[in-house]
């Protein structure tokens, strides 16, 4: 294969050390429970998203970069340079992102890629396709198929509430859309990937059902514009940029390998770090553990409770200790969350100073965070309340979209 | 000066054209005209008043059962499949000098209509459709309270008497058009000038009034022309919604810019914020000035901006969804002939 495959890391000096594992189905940290993103970058073979790239994005789009970009939350990429070169030359690109609708309970971590994608759509004024992999959830989680389809539509409402442009955005569920031009591309991709390759990339075994083994092609296909004739006709010159969390990289390494063999451009990627659980990076966020994350339908008092009681603090054990030594920003969850969601750079820097030096107390930084999160979640809920079934139908309609 | 009905009839008589005159209540459609005439003849001619994207105007006169596909005709005229549409009502009165429901090939008698191209259905001269002995076709003499019955030959003579060489065209043929086969009616179209009243500056005044009216031809063409009329009508209805009553060319270019800019939420958010700041803080305080001066907390301003964006996007989505439902409904209703 042209690109580096994940190799199993040699064990660290201490043989009791745990290796970090990152793949589309599980994420776990190394010995200290934390993810080493530099190691991951190297292991996967992506490029670091440097400051000058961020500056270039600002110059090209004529607006400040999104906080996720400025603060290194979206930290890795493949071929972003090329996308920007194309954009400068007037060669169009579209965005592709997706969600596996496994539950109705979306948390803030789920919203992160969508919030970033909205910024990209607005800044570059480009079309967007959003794939809801209800088939994947039925294959892996044994989810009832009709329930998966229902969850697709429910999740679509939360996605739409993030504020995408309906005239340039196509949301589709695999169960409803696979067929036609989309299916023809799935087959083209499947022809190019062997059982050995998917075993190497995704760890499939002979006991896995054949749907799982064939599925990666379904997630790969939307990288190719001729899957969407209602948006792009038969054009193959249009580029694709995929914002996603870094654990999705294996799918798109495979896709990038296949692309030139089927006469397509390789999709570009822009990848994010993981959103920390309330209990800290060694904790695991799960839809079933309500105290592991802030969910989009949490009430203001639930948000306040969760932050106060469960958000892992890097502050001192006592006020004296805290005033003396300051807070450990590297592990402090409220500080990390503010890095995600407090848009005002100056205010964030001040808080970092004050809290890091111990002048600001844990209670105060948590209060700051609770305000930001409550406003954000409330706005999301109000936006979602306005998303009717007709609005979902409109976003999901296979309608002519003259968007380029 | 536009001709009156009597002046026209006098002119025809002077030229030795033979015809019969029938008076009847006003009729707006071919069907109504058929019912109003003794013997309910089937050879009442239907008339479409058309405008192309280069502002040239045409009257298409045909037998009721002749299928007139505006897309095919547009391609044959060299303006492309979407290049012609039913002319707006105000052009009827301005160019043809006839009221709604009275389009007739004889309207070319009017001086204002010198630039209008007249295309006659070849089937009018076809004995299979209009019997050679005694077969008559019916046309209005500039008003829809009278019909003149004459043989196809007499009609051709009448047109000559009014100063035109009649042009009979097979309206139903759908010829292949490519590099080796140029549009067969293009020379006809290119020889025509746009009537001054049809040009954009003039049309802009007429704005978005009933764009799909397209004269009695539109209504009369109901049955066979329903298919071509529907897409043309749909397009002009869309124009009306977007507040454009302008010429086709301008519409196309302006439409792209206008739709995109009208549905862009961000500038509206800034506009609203500016207006709110001016109203609530007095003078011409901009949002930036307000936060810089500490009159409004920066976080509160950012939150307000985000809330405004959210509300406007919600409205935009709801409106788009409603339009989508309406569009679906229109297609279904058309297929079911529900509103025919």
Automatic annotation (TrEMBL), chain A:
The entry's keywords: Aminoacyl-tRNA synthetase, ATP-binding, Cytoplasm, Ligase, Nucleotide-binding, Protein biosynthesis
UniProt main location, coarse: cytoplasm
Gene Ontology MF, one: tryptophan-tRNA ligase activity
EC number: 6.1.1.2
PROSITE patterns xrefs: AA_TRNA_LIGASE_I
Subcellular location: Cytoplasm
Entry GO CC: cytoplasm
GO biological process: post-embryonic development; reproductive structure development; tryptophanyl-tRNA aminoacylation
Top-level taxon: Eukaryota
A Pfam family: tRNA-synt_1b
Record region (Disordered): 1-29
Homology family: Belongs to the class-I aminoacyl-tRNA synthetase family.
Protein name in the entry: Tryptophan--tRNA ligase, cytoplasmic
Organism: Pleodorina starrii
Gene name for this UniProt entry: PLEST005070
TrEMBL record, chain B:
Ranges where the YbaK/aminoacyl-tRNA synthetase-associated domain occurs: 24-157
Pfam family, one: tRNA_edit
Region (Disordered): 174-205, 226-260
Biased amino acid composition, Basic and acidic residues: 174-183
Cited Gene3D superfamilies: YbaK/aminoacyl-tRNA synthetase-associated domain (3.90.960.10)
InterPro entries in the cross-refs: ProX/PRXD1 (IPR040285), YbaK/aa-tRNA-synt-asso_dom_sf (IPR036754), YbaK/aa-tRNA-synth-assoc-dom (IPR007214)
Species for this entry: Pleodorina starrii
GO function term, MF aspect, one: aminoacyl-tRNA deacylase activity
Name of protein: YbaK/aminoacyl-tRNA synthetase-associated domain-containing protein
PANTHER family: PROLYL-TRNA SYNTHETASE ASSOCIATED DOMAIN-CONTAINING PROTEIN 1-RELATED (PTHR31423:SF3), YBAK DOMAIN-CONTAINING PROTEIN (PTHR31423)
Similarity field: Belongs to the PRORSD1 family.
């Amino acid at each position: 294969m042209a690109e580096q495959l994940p190799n199993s890391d040699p064990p660290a000096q201490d043989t009791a050390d745990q290796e970090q594992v990152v793949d589309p189905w599980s994420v776990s940290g190394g010995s200290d429970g934390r993810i080493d993103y530099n190691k991951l970058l190297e292991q996967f073979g992506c490029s670091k998203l440097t400051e000058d790239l961020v500056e270039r994005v600002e110059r090209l789009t004529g607006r400040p970069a999104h906080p996720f970009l400025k603060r290194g939350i979206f930290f890795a990429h493949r071929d972003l340079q090329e996308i920007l070169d194309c954009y400068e030359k007037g060669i169009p690109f579209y965005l592709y992102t997706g969600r596996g609708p496994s539950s109705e309970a979306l948390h803030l971590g789920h919203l992160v890629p969508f919030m970033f994608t909205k910024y990209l759509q607005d800044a570059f004024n480009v079309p967007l396709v959003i794939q809801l992999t209800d088939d994947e959830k039925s294959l892996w989680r044994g989810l009832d198929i009709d329930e998966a389809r229902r969850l697709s539509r429910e999740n679509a409402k939360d996605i739409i509430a993030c504020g995408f442009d309906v005239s340039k955005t196509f949301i589709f569920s695999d169960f409803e859309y696979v067929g036609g031009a989309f299916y023809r591309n799935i087959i083209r991709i499947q022809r190019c990937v062997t059982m050995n390759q998917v075993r190497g990339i995704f760890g499939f075994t002979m006991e896995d059902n054949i749907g799982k083994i064939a599925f990666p092609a379904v997630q790969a296909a939307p990288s190719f514009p001729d899957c969407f004739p209602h948006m792009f006709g038969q054009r193959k010159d249009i580029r694709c940029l995929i914002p996603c969390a870094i654990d999705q990289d294996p799918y798109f390494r495979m896709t990038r390998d296949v692309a030139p063999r089927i006469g397509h451009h390789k999709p570009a990627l822009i990848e994010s770090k993981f959103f920390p659980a309330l209990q800290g990076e060694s904790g695991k966020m799960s839809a079933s553990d309500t105290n592991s994350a802030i969910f989009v339908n949490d009430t203001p008092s639930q948000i306040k409770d969760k932050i106060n009681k469960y958000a892992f603090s890097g502050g001192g054990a006592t006020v004296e200790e805290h005033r003396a030594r300051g807070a450990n920003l590297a592990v402090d969850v409220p500080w990390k969350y503010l890095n995600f969601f407090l848009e005002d750079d100056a205010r964030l820097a001040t808080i970092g100073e004050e809290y890091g030096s111990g002048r600001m107390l844990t209670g105060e930084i948590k209060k700051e965070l609770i305000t930001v999160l409550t406003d954000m979640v409330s706005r999301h809920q109000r936006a979602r309340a306005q998303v009717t079934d007709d609005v979902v139908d409109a976003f999901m309609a296979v309608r002519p979209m003259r968007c380029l | 000066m536009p001709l009156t009905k009597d002046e026209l009839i006098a002119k025809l008589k002077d030229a030795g054209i033979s015809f019969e005159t029938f008076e009847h209540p006003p009729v707006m459609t071919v069907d109504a005209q058929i019912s109003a005439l003794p013997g309910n003849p089937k050879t009442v001619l239907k008339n479409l008043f058309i405008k192309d994207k280069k502002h040239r105007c045409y009257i298409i006169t045909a037998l009721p059962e002749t299928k007139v596909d505006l897309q095919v005709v547009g391609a044959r005229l060299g303006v492309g499949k979407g290049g012609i549409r039913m002319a707006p009502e105000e052009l009827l009165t301005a160019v043809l000098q006839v009221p709604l429901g009275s389009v007739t090939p004889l309207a070319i008698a009017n001086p204002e209509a010198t630039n209008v191209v007249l295309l006659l259905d070849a089937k009018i001269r076809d004995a299979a459709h209009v019997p050679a002995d005694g077969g008559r076709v019916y046309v209005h003499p500039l008003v829809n309270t009278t019909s003149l019955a004459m043989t196809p030959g007499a009609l051709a003579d009448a047109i000559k008497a009014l100063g035109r060489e009649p042009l009979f065209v097979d309206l139903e043929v759908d010829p292949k058009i490519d590099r080796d086969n140029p549009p067969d009616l293009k020379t006809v179209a290119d020889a025509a000038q746009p009537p001054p009243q049809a040009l954009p500056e003039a049309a802009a005044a007429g704005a978005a009034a009933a764009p799909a009216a397209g004269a009695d031809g539109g209504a009369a063409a109901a049955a066979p022309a329903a298919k071509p009329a529907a897409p043309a009508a749909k397009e002009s209805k869309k124009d009306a919604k977007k507040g454009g009553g302008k010429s086709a060319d301008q519409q196309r270019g302006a439409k792209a810019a206008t739709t995109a800019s009208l549905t862009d939420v961000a500038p509206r958010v800034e506009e609203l914020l500016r207006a709110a700041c001016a109203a609530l803080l007095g003078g011409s305080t901009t949002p930036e000035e307000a936060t810089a001066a500490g009159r409004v907390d920066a976080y509160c301003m950012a939150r307000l901006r985000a809330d405004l964006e959210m509300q406007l996007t919600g409205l935009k989505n709801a409106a788009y969804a409603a339009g989508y439902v309406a569009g679906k409904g229109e297609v279904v209703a058309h297929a079911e002939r529900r509103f025919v």
